[in-house]
Every structure is written in structure tokens, then in C-alpha cells.
Amino acid sequence: MTEVTLDERRFRERFDEFNEIGATEAGGVDRPALSDENERARDLLVEWFRDADLDVRVDRIGNIFGRREGREPDADAVLFGSHVDSQYNGGRFDGVVGVLGALEVVEALEDAGVVTDRPLEIVSWSNEEGVRFQPDMLGSGVYAGEFDLEYALGVTDDEGKPFGEELERIGYDGDAPCEPDGVNCYLELHVEQGPSLEDAGVSVGVVEGVFGFSWMNVAFEGQANHAGPTPMHMRRDALVGTADVTKAVRELTATGGADLVGTVGSVDVWPNAINVIPERVAFTVDVRSYDDDVVDRAVDRVRDEVACAADREGLEFEFEEIMRLEASAFDADCIETVADAAAAAGCEYERLVSGAGHDASYLNEIAPTSMLFVPSVDGVSHRESEFTEWADVVTGVEVLLGAVREQAST
Ligand code: HGY
Ligand code: MN
Ligand code: MN
């Protein structure tokens, strides 16, 4: 097989230039989906895809594809990539490593004059993070048929702005159909966002699946009153109910299942004043496990805890599950392709399951899929200090290159 070498300088310069967009003081990025910063990031990506002579298309939900023809134009394509939208104060590596790594793979093949049998398609999915617009993995979900397009275009952010209008505002309401058209397999390089690889002292993770998870919206309604003269027995404090549920979520993860995790991540208090008893609180609950029954039981427990907390404090409540993703077990052959590529690159690797959600979960519904991880320092992610050693990033791209070449030969 012809030797293909990554241009590490090009790759590093691109990564640094790309992460100047939405850069935060603390060294992270703030590029939420369909923001002005996300628009600038998309524009730069499209420019680089075009510079690489890729055939660029944007689909109806704003997923961006770059296609490189192979020797067999009618063969199903090898699809690989990730996402470039970020958390509000997120890290520079989450998603970007997979998209710019994919671009470097196709550029390195071009530099070496290597044409694969199958076409290659690299992709940047819309709204993977799901922080501004829920649910997450929206672009890959529509593409894989999990969500219908109209529903996705209609979801709104906290200011009531519909996804479709924001997509049009930034000029990425593409006209390509949002559906698979001849996909041989999907591969995704991503930072682990957890401590396993660092703890094991290995540089590559061969990902065998992704946790299932549920996202819930809860609202408590009590009664605002003066913090001073209102006797405790007269209070209906929505924040007390919220605190009870938060504590219950922590407690149920202790007994609900070995890998069960639970988070109350977003809390909105009204009127949020130092001397007023909270009247309304809207908050979120995120529970995850690789065992779907464990997630189902956890959701039922949360629902019960909400009702009990409301009863104790005399609150009205609303409870809605806004997203439920089943656990994904990846394709055995794809997993071995990644493992073989890691071994061929001389890497020690570990097999693991991802606690973080990824677009690969939905791609796994429509094509053989697997992922590969590179270590996150201190297991940190979704934080501005998120970091991966550059040598590990480069190793990940080398393994991705090997896996893509393997899958792209017929
Ligand atoms: O929530 C997740 O795991 C992903 O970052 N959307
Ligand atoms: Mn991600
Ligand atoms: Mn993320």
C-alpha cells in the first residue's frame, strides 16, 4: 500500500486558526449551533473543503459534506467526520478533532496521489451538542431518519428562535436532501471526554458502543413570597423541590446500576431574588447507562421523585422527557477495522464504551459504524480547559487514515 503521510504542520495550523473563531479568554471556545461564530466556522470549513477539491454540499438541516471520488464512483462511500458546534464555554477539541482530522486524511491521500476504490465523504454534523437547541445530534438524527425535518427545523432556543430560521439567517439552509445515499460505513474520531484511556496509559480507544440516555425537562411552580415575614410552614418553595430531586438523582445513581450517571445541569429560578421565595424553577435531568433497562428505571424514578417532592412542598409540576436515545452497539467488523488500524500504527489501545453521546449513535442505525478515541487529559471535557496532547491527536488521525483506507478498498 502506498505510503501516505500526514502534513502535521498544515493540520496544526488549521486547528489553531479554526479555534480562533469563538475563542474565549480562558482558552476554550464559544461556538454554539447556528451562532455567528458557528457561521464563521462553517464558512472556513467550506473554504477548506473547496481548497481540497472536494465536492461540497449542504443538506436541508445544515450538515456539510465534502466528497472525494474513488475509482468506483458507484460504490458506497466511506463517510467520516464529527461536528464543529460547541458548548457555550466548551473545549477546542470536542468535535473539531474529528472534522479537521477527516480533512487532513483526504488531503494526505491527495498529496500522496492515492485514489481509494470507494468514494470518501467527510462530514460536519449540525447541532451535535444540543445546548442551544435540544435535542442533541439533531443533524445526524434527521439524516438517519430519527427525527423528521419539519420537527427539527421547528425546535426553538431559549429565546424562541426556530432552528430553521437561524439556519437560514446564517446561510446554511442547504438544498441537498438530508438522507443517506450510498454509505458503506461511518467512522468518527473524537476525544474520549473521560478518564479511561489516560488511566490505562494507552493512546487510542476502540469504541464498541455508546451509552443510551434520556433528557428530561422539569418545572416546579410554588409561590413567591417575602423571605422574611413568611413563616416556614406557609412556604411553597420551588427551589426546595428542585434540591430534593437533585439529591435524589445523585442517590439513584448509587443504586440504579453500575454505570448509571445522572446530572441536573441547567436550573432557571424565578424571580431569582435574594429576599424572595422562589416561585418557579425549570431544570433539566440527564441520565445515562449502557443498559437501556437501567435508563428506563432511572427515568421512572426521577418522575416519581418529582411527584413526591411536589407533594411534600405543595408545588405544581410539569415533567417531560424531551429525548431518549437507546444504547448503540457498533458494528463488529467496523470495530475490528479500527482495532487493526490502531495495531498497524503501532498503538496500544483499549476497547471501551462511550458515556458521551455522538452522531455515530444515529449513523449506527443506517450503516456499519465505529469510533476511535484519543485521551482527554484528566478526563476533562465540556470545559474550556479541555485538552488532548497533540501527539495523541496526530496518532488518532493516523489511525483514522488507516481505518478509512481499509474500509475504502473493495
Ligand atoms: O450530550 C452529549 O453527550 C453530547 O455532547 N451531545
Ligand atoms: Mn462531541
Ligand atoms: Mn460535546
Specify the overall morphology: elongated
**Helical content class:** 25-40%
In percent terms, what proportion of residues is strand?
A: 15-25%
- Small ligands present: (2S)-amino(hydroxy)ethanoic acid, manganese (II) ion
How many strands, which pairing sense, and closed or not: the largest β-sheet?
9 strands, mixed
The total of beta strands comes to 14
Return residue spans where pLDDT drops below 50 for at least 5 consecutive residues: none
Alpha-beta classification: alpha/beta
Distance between the termini: 14 Å
Number of continuous helical runs: 12
- Rg, Å, rounded: 22 Å
Average of per-residue pLDDT values: 97
Task: Explain the overall architecture.
- The chain has 410 residues and is of the alpha/beta class.
- It is 35% helix and 22% strand.
- It has 12 helices and 14 strands.
- It has helices at 8-18, 36-51, 96-111, 138-143, 149-154, 163-169, 196-200, 238-255, 292-313, 332-344, 360-363, 390-408; strands spanning 55-58, 64-68, 77-83, 120-125, 183-191, 204-210, 212-221, 261-263, 267-270, 280-289, 316-325, 328-329, 349-354, 369-374.
- The longest helix is centred in the C-terminal third of the chain and has 22 residues, at 292-313.
- Bound molecules: (2S)-amino(hydroxy)ethanoic acid and manganese (II) ion (2 copies).
- One manganese (II) ion (MN) is lined by residues 83, 94-95, 128, 190.
- The site of one manganese (II) ion has 5 residues, from loops.
